[in-house]
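User: Sequence in, structure out. Go.
Assistant: Echoing your sequence, followed by the structure tokens.
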Amino acid sequence: MNEIIDEVALSTSINGTQYEIHSRIVLHPDKGRLCEYRVLLGSVIIRDWTEGEIAPCFAAGTMRMI
């Protein structure tokens, strides 16, 4: 099982629709540190955990720890 090192949530509006993006860093036993994100529309997962670093695309003031 991967250990979660850090996790934040970001809110963004695209074409008037409000999304929440979760971004996290996990420690993978074979790959080391990995960045992952997922996208939610309300409580519905639009895109489940996917490898990639998205947090730098957002201003620090829009993030909250989860």
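User: And one key feature?
Assistant: The two ends are 19 Å apart (CA to CA).
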